[in-house]
Design a protein that fits this description.
Length: about 475
């Protein structure tokens, strides 16, 4: 076989320069018989078009649910890793647009910046802004599950009631753990569970955290029996810390967000739903974590409600794409929160839901305090059949290789995207819009995404760093003098 440029000998056909192939363009009417081409690079052609293969130029498509139905992957989980500024959110937004176009419902489970809110509004979806003085989320609100329960009867309704009860208690325990910064004891869990039951029996509306606090402070006979307390004094002593924890949920740093009824229920008919919690970020990590946990629970209740109704033939079956961006910010709030997130996301495949988890580094997950939490957090990446790598440094790729096998050339390629190669202003980051798609033991697919049309505006995650606006025809600039 001759080398690429020919043999290095006289009359060996040596070519000093190999000219590129000629590219011809024509309409599909003229060249319809030539497409699809006889030979390809093996890139998947089903799903949302992501970009072109960096080596062959072939169009690469990605959609976790479509790939699952085609047997390309075993579960619809996507784990996206990359340095800030490499375009992780841009890729996820393209997936969101594609999911909505194919008939799936996109759920943005806590928009912390907000990156996705303008896009959801553009798609005609529902945007809920959570924060003090804005919309409220009731952690004990059954939400769409409660609406589904009203349309059901018999054993199915009873099973759903237990599911609603379990979700309420799980989220309340997670919030109490967050406030206390330590786990709730088994004794307190028993008391909380009985209190939630009593409130649900008494009220003809969705219970709230203040309702649960009031019942525990009253100390009815059912709660004293659950607390194994013979006297009122014993009961008060045993529930003292629990009362203060619940009181902090209502009057502490989380006041005004989770201490009342839900103000804007989720729209089951919306093509996409974004819960904007960006206003909460300035109030501290604790409030942000609480908002993300409540958002996850409320959104997954929507998915479960639609699944329960479809099983009974009361509603059509639906597909979902859930986006969990800034994942690490929710998991580091307090010990034990990883377990709650793990329980919510583990059965997504059975619900017809694809999940996209986005974080900067696996080191974010390793920063959790408890070893048990770190192990479960790493399981998020292990369970995701699809891993998408944007620009990452070599030390991070060594961690990734422990979860997703990487070849030497793949490691070198992704590492080459991790840092700018120029100090010139306006130079394009080498990793901007470049991704390596990995699925199991298959070779990675290097793809480069190009924006089109309205995407330039809707996908911009740094609008505050744009050029100065002109007011009255004069650019408004800020001048800083050394003597100021």
């Amino acid at each position: 076989m001759a080398p690429v440029r020919g043999w290095r000998r006289p009359y060996g056909g040596r070519a000093v320069h190999v000219a590129p192939g000629v590219e011809y363009q024509a309409t599909t009417t003229q060249v319809c018989g030539m497409y699809p081409f006889v030979a390809g690079a093996g890139a998947p052609s089903i799903g949302t078009p992501i970009g072109r293969h960096q080596l062959s130029g072939e169009v690469v498509c990605l959609d976790p649910l479509t790939w699952l139905r085609a047997g390309l992957v075993t579960n619809p989980g996507v784990f996206v890793l990359g340095q800030p500024g490499t375009g992780k959110s841009t890729l996820v937004k393209r997936l969101v647009v594609g999911a909505v176009a194919f008939g799936s419902t996109a759920l943005i489970l806590g928009d912390t910046k907000p990156d996705y809110t303008p896009l959801v509004g553009h798609l005609g979806g529902q945007v809920i802004g959570v924060g003090r003085g804005m919309d409220r989320l009731n952690p004990l609100d059954a939400g769409p599950l409660g609406a589904a329960l009203q349309r059901m009867s018999g054993p199915q309704a009873q099973r759903l009631r237990w599911e609603v009860r379990g979700r309420r208690l799980s989220l309340l325990l997670a919030l109490c753990t967050l406030i206390r910064e330590s786990r709730i004891t088994n004794f307190e869990e028993v008391v909380l569970g009985r209190a939630v039951d009593l409130v649900d029996e008494r009220l003809r509306r969705e219970p709230t955290v203040p309702d649960v606090l009031t019942v525990i402070e009253e100390g009815p006979e059912a709660l004293r029996s659950a607390a194994r307390a013979d006297t009122d004094g014993t009961y008060r002593e045993r529930t003292r810390e629990l009362v203060f924890t619940l009181d902090l949920l209502c009057t502490g740093s989380l006041a005004g967000v989770f201490d009342g009824p839900t103000t804007r229920p989720l729209d089951l008919t919306a093509p996409a739903v974004a819960i904007d919690i960006s206003r909460i970020g300035a109030a501290g990590d604790k409030l942000l974590t609480a908002a993300m946990l409540s958002t996850w629970a409320y959104s997954f209740a929507m998915v479960d409600a639609c699944a329960a109704l479809s099983e009974l033939g009361l509603a059509p079956r639906r597909a979902w794409l859930g986006v969990m961006d800034e994942l690490w910010r929710a998991l580091r709030g307090a010990p034990g929160l990883v377990e709650y997130a793990d329980a919510l996301t583990r059965l997504n495949r059975a619900k017809g839901m694809a999940s996209v988890m986005v974080t900067h580094s696996l080191a974010d997950l390793d920063a959790l305090t408890a070893e048990e939490d770190r192990a479960k957090a790493r399981g998020f990446a292990d369970r995701s059949a699809i891993t998408v790598l944007a620009g990452l440094p070599p030390r991070e790729l060594a961690r990734v290789a422990e979860v997703t096998p990487l070849t030497g050339p793949e490691t070198e390629l992704v590492a080459s995207w991790s840092a700018p190669d120029s100090w010139q202003p306006g130079a394009r980051h080498p990793g901007r819009g470049k991704y390596l798609i990995k699925t199991g033991e298959r070779l990675g697919i290097p793809v480069e995404l190009s924006l089109v049309g309205e995407e330039y505006r809707l996908y911009d995650t740094d609008p505050q760093f744009g050029p100065f606006e002109q007011v009255g025809g004069n650019a408004q600039n800020l001048r800083i003098d050394s003597g100021a």
